[in-house]
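Hi R.,

Here's the input for the adenosine-5'-diphosphate complex you asked about:
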Amino acid sequence: MSEAAAIADTPRSGPPPGKEAAAHAQAGISTDVGSGDELASPQQDAPVLFLSGIERHYRQGDAVLEILKGAELAVWPGQSVALVAPSGAGKSTLLHVAGLLEYPDSGEVYIDRLATSTLSDGQRTRLRRTEVGFVYQFHHLLPEFSALENVMLPQMIRGLSRREAINRSTELLNYLGLKDRLTHRSAELSGGEQQRVAIARAVANAPRILLADEPTGNLDPRTSERVFGALTQLVRASGLAMICATHNMDIAARMDRRVTLKDGAVVELE
Ligand code: ADP
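And here is the predicted structure with adenosine-5'-diphosphate in place:
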């Protein structure tokens, strides 16, 4: 059985009640159990990512920090969403939940209309690997490996041949303006170049969703501008959906939508 078929074979959650069903209808999400082939044929008329009624709290000693309280967010293919909120508001938490790195305490994360709460850990990991890319404030590249090798690695882990991984990585790095840096060790690259390699690595497996957490927060304004330019160009060209947490209002202004977190809920700006 193929990976997509194996994931699609997993039981989905049943129709959600009341308010949640209304949110689903608004987001174009069917509450039917579905035929199971959504992953094989992505739907353009539905959000590629839908967060429904997400609750997330952390315990600190005796205190309970309620970070997300019924957060709802639908993101369509090709759409870029800026997540602008003060430090501590829960931006990283939302991205971790959306990217299946953390479980919500309640609510559902749909990826391509697939309810993820019923998946096994292995299925979540495979879905994350194929459908989601992450870019962080710090690049987390392997310093002793070349730019090319850093981008090849996730593809080889996924099972592509070395030749295929070289071709795709070269193409991506060329696209991001790093044609002359392919064989440089990542430790030898500038901050802006390292971050562009990290972007190439994040999209190496052609995910449908890119989650970026302050991707230019560690760069000077000019470099930040160049890296963000490369990022948006790539997002538009590939039809990726992106949520980008940022404090930079200039960057936020250039994205399709802006949202914030208020009292644990996602609120549209403007
Ligand atoms: P942001 O990205 O907006 O700065 P975060 O999502 O990182 O906010 O964190 C939101 C709040 O949750 C912060 O107060 C943070 O200290 C707390 N928090 C985040 N992760 C944990 C954790 N694993 N355990 C306890 N508290 C956490």
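One thing worth noting: The pocket of adenosine-5'-diphosphate is lined by residues 58, 60, 65, 67, 85, 87-93 (CB under 6 Å).

Cheers,
M.
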